[in-house]
Specification:
Length: about 350
């Protein structure tokens, strides 16, 4: 098996609370996964499930003084990076590991020209490149991501770009140093379908050029089905299910995953109304005992153990689910679909 580019082991992230008498909140609880060379790992789940926080922890970008990695390990190739000092992380971020953030308008500096911001990413990781070489590289990147008239646009400010063009600038910054791992956090949020397709085609082209791996964080299950090789489903700070994209979509082994799949509209018909998972994700201040999903799960209502014992990921190595009754999920899905 190919050695992983990124390996996360038993990651626990805690956030401090404003209440001195309360223990820190365990926001991420024992998350583990690998990403191998050239692979696309999709991470899905409802808002608040811990997707972005996990990646911020991997990148060493948790808010200082408020959040920390309490335990676990993060390895990039053969280097453990969660214990690196600031200088060591800075040498990796934007170079070997890059991240496309969720909102380009808040991620770009509004008072700095677009070309200068891209140039800064290049200058930090390629100090031997002269000024003319950096300018040429900026124009090359803008042209690569489909920004027309790069010589003019590089002198403009972020507010002079549309949302889709700002996202392209973010991608240009992320790929400036040809990273080996690209983390894309909702890269197509608020973009129309046409621009979304262009952005994803661009990311595929970039990955082909650099043989980079990618972690795609998204709510769009259709997008995951198109581009991901494997999928990790997160719920309440834990991985509920992980497996190859085809296996997970064809035969989900966790009721939460099944609920997400049933929420997808079927253009060919066959479903009278759009289904939704009942209830709301748990508050991080008061997680339920046992399986965090059990208050919303009709399968759990028949099994008291779901409310008492926390399930661990189990099953075949390539497709695992954190459910006490994963073997019963197919029959449960069939019964639910008849309701």
């Amino acid at each position: 098996m190919t050695a992983p580019v990124l390996s996360v082991r038993d990651l626990v992230v805690e956030f401090d609370t404003p209440h001195a008498d309360r223990a820190p909140l365990r926001v991420i609880d024992g998350v583990s996964f690998d990403v191998v060379a050239g692979e696309v790992l999709g991470i899905v789940g409802e808002s608040g499930s811990g997707k972005s926080v996990t990646m911020l922890a991997v990148m060493g970008l948790l808010p200082g003084g408020q959040a920390r990695i309490a335990s676990g390990e993060v390895w990039f190739n053969d280097t453990r990076i969660d214990t690196l000092p600031f200088a060591g992380l800075s040498a990796l971020r934007g170079g070997a590991i890059s991240m496309i953030f969720q909102d380009p308008m808040t991620s770009l500096n509004p008072v700095s020209r677009v070309g200068r911001q891209i140039a800064e990413a290049i200058r930090l990781h390629q100090p031997d490149l002269n000024r003319a070489g950096i300018k040429d590289r900026v124009m090359e990147l803008l042209d690569l991501v489909g920004v027309p008239d790069a010589a003019t646009r590089m002198r403009q400010f972020p507010h002079e770009f549309s949302g889709g063009m700002r996202q392209r600038v973010m991608i240009a910054m992320a790929i400036a140093n040809e990273p080996k791992l690209l983390i894309a956090d909702e890269p197509t949020t608020a973009l129309d379908v046409t621009i979304q397709a262009q952005v994803m085609d661009l990311l595929a082209e970039v990955r082909e050029r650099t043989s980079a791996s990618m972690i795609l964080i998204t709510h769009d299950l259709g997008l995951v089905a198109e581009v991901a090789d494997r999928v990790a489903v997160m719920y309440s700070g834990r991985i509920a299910e992980m497996g190859p994209v085809d296996a997970l979509f064809d035969a989900p082994a966790h009721p939460y995953t099944a609920g997400l799949m049933r929420s997808l509209p079927i253009l060919a018909g066959g479903r009278a109304r759009l289904w939704s998972i009942p209830g709301q994700p748990p508050d991080v201040f008061s997680r339920p005992s046992g399986c965090a999903f059990h208050p919303r799960c009709s399968l759990a209502q028949e099994h008291p153990v779901c409310a008492a014992d926390l399930p661990q990921l189990s099953g075949p190595k390539t497709h695992r689910a954190a459910c006490h009754f994963a073997a019963d999920v197919p029959a449960w899905i069939a019964a639910e679909d008849t309701v």
